[in-house]
Write a structure and sequence with these properties.
GO terms for molecular function: phosphorelay response regulator activity; protein-glutamate methylesterase activity. The protein is α/β, with parallel strands linked by helices. The chain has eleven helices and twelve strands.
């Protein structure tokens, strides 16, 4: 697997492979000797797991790390934990019979990751509420993110009460990772968090995550609050796509609060601008708090952002905006 990764990366003129390691001790020595800008790290290694090595690395020499994982249920769960511990991105190992070139796009991910702001995750606060907030949330929340957004979403939902606004999330990850992400979130935050199903009705206290795979997570046309899983090609280079979700909610206009989080590329920028033009309240994660200020930057350049918000304040800002009466803008 290391040989395959090296052969893919050495074909890219933007990247110099300075070392490779077969285990944790070799990796430690290589990091100290070569001071690389970014590293790939396998979940499965002899003597010490990739997750344990990542934990030690982030404590002693924080740097951008891209995890390499299998798409098994166990591998996906560990990958999500790695992203929550500070890994920038996770890519899947090629499988027998896989269509397309193995590790396609890995070079682009590493180049972007090398410039990422590595932030050590903090313990989530406040503790899980035991009762409802009693606040009157009049708008639904739509959130989109990519690189670095696993930790961001955890920290945002940690601020949500058990009667939070109906919330949809599209996060760029392979299908098994998304299932593990929902399973990780549900027991540690107050709202109910699960993968969306076709025809689900949006309810207060529920957070629905795009299941990915062959599907985009969209709002159904009309005036109801139901979702559709739309099978189709990639939109803005992704499936699930943030643009697809945002644009499907444009008919709801001022019933929506939309947030765009850290991530590479431009997915969500056009949809965010469209939502804002229809009366939605739109929030962008600030440059200073992003791991990769790609998606929010593009949304801002398209005049799609009402307000820039640091990550630590993002959850509360979403809740405040969701309380804003339909037809009004927050002060």
């Amino acid at each position: 697997m290391r040989g395959l990764i090296r052969s893919v990366l050495e074909r890219d003129p933007r990247i110099e492979v300075v070392a490779e390691a077969g285990g944790a001790s070799e990796a430690r020595d290589a990091v100290n000797a070569h001071q690389p800008h970014v590293m790939t790290l396998d979940i499965e290694m002899p003597s010490m797991s990739g997750l344990e090595f990542l934990d030690r690395l982030m404590r002693h020499r924080p740097m951008p790390v891209v995890m390499v994982s299998t798409l098994t249920k166990a591998g996906s769960a560990i990958a999500i934990e790695a992203l929550a511990k500070g890994a920038v991105e996770c890519v899947q190992k090629p499988t027998i019979g896989q269509s397309g070139a193995p590790f396609a796009g890995l070079a682009d991910i590493l180049v972007a990751a090398a410039n990422a702001r590595v932030k050590l995750p903090t313990s989530m606060a406040p503790p899980r509420p035991v009762s409802q907030s009693g606040r009157k949330f009049q708008r639904m929340c739509l959130l989109g993110g990519s690189t670095g957004a696993v930790d961001a979403i955890e920290r945002i939902l940690a601020r949500f009460p058990s009667d939070c606004p109906p919330t949809l999330i599209t996060q760029h990850m392979p299908e098994p990772f998304l299932a593990s992400f929902a399973a990780r979130l549900n027991p540690i935050v107050a709202p109910t968090v699960r993968l969306a199903r076709d025809g689900d009705e949006l309810r207060h206290g529920e957070v629905l995550i795009a299941p990915g795979g062959a599907y985009h997570l969209n709002m159904q046309p009309g005036f109801g609050r139901r979702v559709s899983l739309l099978e189709g090609p990639k939109v803005s280079g992704h499936r699930p796509s943030v643009d697809s979700m945002f644009q499907s909610a444009c008919h709801l206009g001022d019933q929506v609060v939309a947030g765009i989080l850290t991530g590479m590329g431009r997915d969500g920028a056009e949809g965010m601008a469209d939502l804002r033009s229809k009366g939605a309240i739109t929030l962008g994660q600030s440059r200073e708090s992003c791991v990769v200020f790609g998606m929010p930057r593009m949304a801002g350049e398209m005049d799609g952002v009402d307000q820039w918000v640091d990550l630590d304040a993002f959850g509360d800002a979403l809740l405040k905006a969701a309380e804003t009466p339909v037809g009004a803008k927050p002060r």
